[in-house]
Every structure is written in C-alpha cells, then in structure tokens.
User: Which sequence fits this backbone?
C-alpha cells in the first residue's frame, strides 16, 4: 500500500518526461506534491543510516556524508529498535531503506539485512547504494539479499560502474536491482543558517517530512537533518540547533498513531529550511566541502 500517492504519481510523471522539461517543471511539481503529501495510516519509507560516511563524496549530499566521520550502525541497538518499531507499527511501514553513507562499507551488513527482514517481514527492503563496491561483495551478501527479499537500489551517478556485470551477478542470485535509466540530478537543500524561516511554511513545502522518516538510536525523526546536522556544524563552525522537539522517542510512545501525528507536524528544526527555493536537478559533481553546497 502506498501512503503518499502524490509523490508516487510525480515519480511516474518524471519517468516519461524529457530531462529538459523535468528541469523546468520540477520545482513547481515538487511544491504542488509536497503540499499534498500527508501522513495517513502508515509510513512509506523508514531510512536507516547503516554508516554515516561514504566512499563517494557528492556535492549537495542530503545526509552531509562528505563531512561525516567514520561511523557504523550499532547492530545490537538496531535489533532492539527494529523490534520496538515493528511491534508499534504492525506492518504499516511500506519500505525500509538501508542507506547512508554507503551501506556496503558496514562489515556486518549481512546481519543488518537479516534483522530488518526478521522484524519487518512484510515490508519491502531497499539497499540504497552507489554501487562502487558491489562487484567486490562476497557470495554470502547476494545469498542474504535473496533470502531477505532485499532490492539493491543503485543510485545512478555519472561515474564508472559496470552495471551489466552487477546485473548479471544479481540475476544469478535472483536478486532484484534498480538502476535509473539516466544519471540522476541532485537537489540542493537550502539551509537558512540564521533559522529565520516560518516552520509551518517550510514544513508544508517539504517532501522529506513525509517521505524520509529516519530511525536512529531509538528515535524517529521526520527527516535526516536534525540527526546529522552535527557534521555540518562541526565542519563549518556553525550552531544549527537540533532539539528534543525534533524527534519522538520510540520507547516513550505508546501507540503508532503518536508517531504518525508527530510526522504530520512541523518540528522546531524546520526554521532552518528554505524549502520554497530548493534547487532541483543540479548536475552531479564531487563535493569540495564548501558551505554553499548546503546554503
Ligand atoms: S553516494 Fe549518496 S550517500 Fe554517498 S556522498 Fe553521494 S549522495 Fe551522499
Ligand atoms: S527540518 Fe522540517 S522542513 Fe527541513 S527537511 Fe526536516 S521536516 Fe523538512
């Protein structure tokens, strides 16, 4: 079941439009879609940062990975968090996305996939990767992908990747892969470092609030900004404050509806997001770690 139909429809429209038309129309389509997204009876995507750092450092990375230090998901803690979220949500999560950073860098990724599948047997599981390490992955990785019904979703960047070979290995193990026909454009999320935005308006125009729910260290966030803004702050010497109002504690809520209600409302951190002027479809390039990539 899709809980956020407007976004699904927009993605279908993007598939049939030429790139030049998408570039022109995307800001209008996205603000139209964002204002119509609602959190209904379930969640479309729950994102898990399997590692915070990445082996490819893209300009505009929405999770600040070019600025992140080496950090790996704690597998035992993840198991407990999944158990708790699973019992609260009773299957009302459409897809769990294992991402990062680059998830293939986690030495216990196979266990992470097994735990995810154990607690969310009816949800889809997407392993979102830049693909650079896929040809080095052992047989056990592919076997586990198949056993857990994991889709290997490769982000298509204009980098050297032998997709034909990856596809053929995946086929051998009967693992589903996704790879966009064309390299993707990058969106530039505009942070207002002075926190001067109207939180209701920022939230209303935000598609991440209703599509990129994050589970991290026992907490549910509406987006990936508050949990990882520390990397931005540390690198650029800024102080964008993430506060207690920016998440909901998995172990304090009693019902899944409390989480849905939280996800449907603006959070204090929205004052830092200039969502009305996000620039979509930027050309992909490597990050130079300049503050203007996020502001
Ligand atoms: S590959 Fe993805 S996670 Fe890694 S830096 Fe690029 S956008 Fe960020
Ligand atoms: S802080 Fe608010 S406006 Fe910014 S990305 Fe998160 S939910 Fe959206």
Assistant:
């Amino acid at each position: 079941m899709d809980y956020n139909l407007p976004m699904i429809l927009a993605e279908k429209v993007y598939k049939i439009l030429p790139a030049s038309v998408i570039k022109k129309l995307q800001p209008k389509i996205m603000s139209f879609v964002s204002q119509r997204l609602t959190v209904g009876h379930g969640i479309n995507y729950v994102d898990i940062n399997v590692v915070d750092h990445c082996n490819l450092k893209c300009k505009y990375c929405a999770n600040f990975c070019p600025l992140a230090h080496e950090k790996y998901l704690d597998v035992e803690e993840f198991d407990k968090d999944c158990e708790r979220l699973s019992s609260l949500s009773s299957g009302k999560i459409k897809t769990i996305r294992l991402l990062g950073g680059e998830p293939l860098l986690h030495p216990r990724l196979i266990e992470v996939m097994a735990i995810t599948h154990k607690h969310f047997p009816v949800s889809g599981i997407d392993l979102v990767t830049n693909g650079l390490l896929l040809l080095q992955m052992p047989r056990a990785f592919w076997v586990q992908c198949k056993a857990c019904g994991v889709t290997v979703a490769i982000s298509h960047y204009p980098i050297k990747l032998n997709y034909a070979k990856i596809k053929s290995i995946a086929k051998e193990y009967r693992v589903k892969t996704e790879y966009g026909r064309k390299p993707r454009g990058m969106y530039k999320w505009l942070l207002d470092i002075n926190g001067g935005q109207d939180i209701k308006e920022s939230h209303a125009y935000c598609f991440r609030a209703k599509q990129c729910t994050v589970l991290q260290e026992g907490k549910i966030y509406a987006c990936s900004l508050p949990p990882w803004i520390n990397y931005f702050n540390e690198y650029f010497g800024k102080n964008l404050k993430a506060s207690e109002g920016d998440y909901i504690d998995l172990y304090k809520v009693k019902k899944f509806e409390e989480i849905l209600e939280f996800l449907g409302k603006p959070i204090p951190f929205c004052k830092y997001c200039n969502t009305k002027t996000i620039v979509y479809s930027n050309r992909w390039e490597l990050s130079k770690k300049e503050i203007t990539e996020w502001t």
